[in-house]
Amino acid sequence: MKQHPRAILLGAQARTGILPVCDHYSGVEARMRKSLQLQAEMTQEFGACVFDVTLDCEDGAPVGGEAAHADLVTELALQAPAAARVAVRVHPVDHPVFDADVQSIVGRAGGRLCHVMIPKVESVRDVEAAVRAIDAAGATALPLHVLIESPAAVHRAFDIAAHPRVQSLSFGLMDFVSAHAGAIPEAGMGVQGQFTHPLVVRAKLEIASACHAHGKVPSHCVVTEFKDRAAMAAAARRAAAEFGYTRMWSIHPDQIRPILEALSPTQGEIEQATRLLEAAERADWAPISFEGKLHDRASYRFFWQVLERAHQTGSRLPAEAQAWFPSH
């Protein structure tokens, strides 16, 4: 019986599974409900769940109303369709309501969550504190996503990414810039400056590198200019092509499709990958000459990952490739 290409080419490297390329955040009740409805509609359209919905407690809960907001998030998670991918961003581990968030939401709806986002993580110690609380709530296998938002956290990104419960690292641009006490200008938070200011660029590259070193998913920060679709698409393309990010935050429904389009392979790339991998499979994955170039398992892995990204973004696969993704 033939082994699946994923097993042959990735093996133990495929440690964290595959995440949708977009993580959509909302914290107001009406928007959270609309986000879950939009996820269901786009899942039907693409034949795959192409973005996560993260219900936000950190920025979504009104001061003094944290418990009621946590109850609302819990009910929304429990009511979501079985095929939905729903996550929650709780308060930071040193916030007074962190434990209550976890007990309320994870304790009741942990089985419906795809992950928990922990903001303002500064060190592995914060990750371990979050793991203890989540495990105590009964969700001992629930993955953690962490938000890197300070220079010190960037310095420790490799250690944080190495933690076995961490599935993804996200970059918190706004807090990172603010943490520099004015040393980075406001333009560093904009759609242009965040890709050119040296300190911001360095932070993005460190986080992406840490993720790739440990088989985790680097998730790019928000773009606040959500009404500018062209700027959003350009930022997503730069995040993927120049900075190595394979996932990106959305804070408005209009940002989801540009992110999906920018982080999806083109049809030409999909067709090339399919033809090459078919030839490699016929050669039992030995080195081959393809279109005048020598290829072996190193490049086969690259092209296999093109097809996996195509599958997770709901892209159209050639008939020859669909056999490798029977659920497509």
Descriptors:
8-stranded parallel β-barrel; 46% helix; TIM Barrel; alpha/beta; globular; 328 residues
3D structure, described in words:
There is one protein chain. This protein is α/β, with parallel strands linked by helices and 328 residues long. It has 2 domains: 24-262, TIM Barrel, CATH 3.20.20.60; 267-322, no CATH class. It has 14 helices and 10 strands. It has helices at 5-9, 29-46, 66-79, 98-109, 124-136, 151-155, 157-162, 173-178, 198-213, 229-241, 256-262, 267-282, 297-312, 319-322; strands spanning 22-26, 51-56, 86-89, 113-118, 144-148, 166-171, 217-220, 247-250, 288-290, 293-295. Strands 1-2-3-4-5-6-7-8 form an 8-stranded parallel beta barrel, surrounded by 6 helices. The protein has a two-stranded antiparallel ribbon with strand order 9-10. Helix 3 (66-79) packs parallel to helix 4, helix 10 packs parallel to helix 11 and helix 12 crosses helix 13 (297-312). The longest helix is centred in the first third of the chain and has 18 residues, at 29-46. It is globular and about 65 Å long.
Secondary structure blueprint with pairings:
Layout: H1 5-9, E1 22-26, H2 29-46, E2 51-56, H3 66-79, E3 86-89, H4 98-109, E4 113-118, H5 124-136, E5 144-148, H6 151-155, H7 157-162, E6 166-171, H8 173-178, H9 198-213, E7 217-220, H10 229-241, E8 247-250, H11 256-262, H12 267-282, E9 288-290, E10 293-295, H13 297-312, H14 319-322
* Overall form: globular
CATH superfamily grouping of the largest domain: Phosphoenolpyruvate-binding domains
Strands ordered across the widest β-sheet: 1-2-3-4-5-6-7-8
* CA-CA gap between termini: 22 Å
Number of structural units classed as domains: 2
* Element-level helix/strand string: HEHEHEHEHEHHEHHEHEHHEEHH
Rg over alpha carbons: 20 Å
